[in-house]
Amino acid sequence: MSTKLKAADIVIVGLGWTGGILAKELADTGLSIVVLERGKPRDTNPDFMYPNVHDELKYAQRHELMQDVSRETLTFRNNSNQTALPMRQLGSFLPGEGVGGAGVHWNGVTWRWLPWDHEPEKITLARYGKSAIPEGMQLQDWGVSYDELEPYYDKFEYLCGIAGKAGNLNGNKIDGGNVFEGSRKREYPNPPMIQSYAGALFEKAVRTLGYHPFPGPSANMSQPYINPDGVAFGACHYCGYCERFGCEVNAKASAHFTVIPLAAAKKNVEIRTDSRVMKVNLDDAKKRAESVTYLDAAGREFEQPGGLVIMAAYALGNVHLMLLSRIGKPYDPATGTGVVGRNYAYQINTGANVFFDEKTWLNPFMGAGALSMNIDDFNTGSFDHLKEGFIGGGGISTPSAGGRPIGFRPVPPGTPAWGTDWKRAVVRHYNHTLAINNQGSVMGYRQNYLDLDPTYRDSYGRPLMRMTFDFQQNEQKQANFIADVCVKIGQAMGGERVVRRGAPQRYSIVPYQSTHNTGGAVMGTDPTKSALNPFSQTWDVSNVFVTGACSFPQNAGKNPTGPVGALALRTADSIKRYLKNPGPLAPA
Amino acid sequence: MIVALVDTLIPKDDVGPGGVEVGVPIFIDHELAGAYGRGVRMFLNGPFGEGTPQQGYQLPLPPADLYRVGIADLNAWCAKTRDGKTFDQLSMADRTAALKALEAGQAEFTQIPSRTFFSILLQNTMEGYFADPIYGGNRNKAVWTMIGFPGAIGMYGDLIEQYRNKQYVIAPKSIQDLS
Q: Which pTM does this prediction carry?
């Protein structure tokens, strides 16, 4: 039995980075906004206070801040010949739950994706021709170029107080910044963070190899900061408890203390936590969303009517909600038709572990989530990747994100996993080992997709979403090629032993890899290949907009929060235009 | 039984403290008795299929039940292959050999794969050994002292540059020490 509530002008599903940004930006319109968040209210005080938040077991191992899969999960298989089975516990990726979403427990690495990442099809065709694109790869452009997104990247960086160094300022290449980045109009709002010894070793080594090192763009504050909205940030303590934790001093940009309180302070914005959206209800013609059905903390069902619905859940959650609500045609890999679930992608990680002698002290516990030195010499579009036999690339970095010992206790291969010899190796290597990581791009493929599972249901009786995904040869080639570069860097660093981490044969949902799931509701200019138009509006139901990494047609060799934030800010402007003249913002 | 298992995985030796002396069995008992042991954040709806290694854990058992079944299987297998003795009655050398067989998936368990039980046992043992002492393991922060991890402190803004390539020695602090 559903209780019908008073209509709102705008209903936002999910209150993380994108829901927070949209609520804050659209609050200025004076329209009534209801935000529905499935999780709990959370704030820095009391939820992330020192010293309790420095608890590796609770947050990193038991996933205190993340999605509770006993309620909602998905099923997984590597290919459509297998039967998908549920993800019964978190592993490969860690979606958030609660106010602030996954943006509470992120590391803070905030890139602008490279120009190539926004227009890979156009650039590949111009550079190599159609024959370069392997069978089954569905390379496609966003319909929004890097240059069009630049003002929004800038706005998100200033909102977050990103620490970094420009490498391309108005077309002028600057040594010490990322010379491969797209042109930016101004510097980062904060200077780069202080590098660790690991970062210093990396920088020196890659310079001797002729590459172009630069400090990672970081949402961990290199100094106290006040953003353009007047929100104050503390300086980072380099405590090493970033990813999977909240920050006790608001030194890691997060929606929960920036955009969300600003939105919540407005009379026309109402935030309802413990409000789990079940589906979006359409009119009989399936052309217009009329309301959203959700359950409150007590399990009571409500229908919230709204003039406009914004899906701002995690990437996977948005696609699930579209499938359940029958917004857009579901993708069918057999025919290649349909759009919802199409081009789901992930990332492929390889690299090298570098073991040093006992005189080299790395102090791995001194660090911050986004503290890193990087090169983009082998990232997407930076080099002649087709010569090496693949499309794409990856970012190479040495992170200094912390040395919490349940998760970080490197030992060389051949060491037993327990017993005295294991213990001796842990003591020997804990303070003398670093990692060089490749974060490799993954393109969209015909056979990698999301749909509804025919068998399994969540605790609310809804079909689970089914993920069908595996790494393809193109990505394995890329990741192995870059792993070799990582080994070369490790050797140039002077490591006593450098251990290559090559590409996995198959994707596994078990070990943690990254919370960088993309695609499934991608944007683009062709309604037969994209679920959203270039303004993040669904092609079929013009009063539904969708935010987040689900709209990226392929995954890049970079963390996605930068473009997620930038795109949300752009979507706010698109929605403001829509509100003046409701209807499709792009011709179908 | 848990004491015998932990003592075999992390023995007391000249390198550093053993798992038992720092309280890892107490840690495991507490974890299994609580929300984690009951699998309150696991998806345990059926149907249950075996799946591939890439699909992950697919048993209907939350951790506490997995231990009960695993220990019963382990003792039955030990009794069958080692003169009627349960695991805790074996010599250290025999226990070590038995756990190596589990780790390799070569122990013939009747109810669950031996490697699945070994895997959660090893994970929880390591968690208890390295976690903050508030959870009952890593007593006196002895394990953090052994590897040189300062614990919950985390104030390195003024130190990270100064201690490049230098050993940083400090007595580790736990959450309770700082509360």
A: 0.98
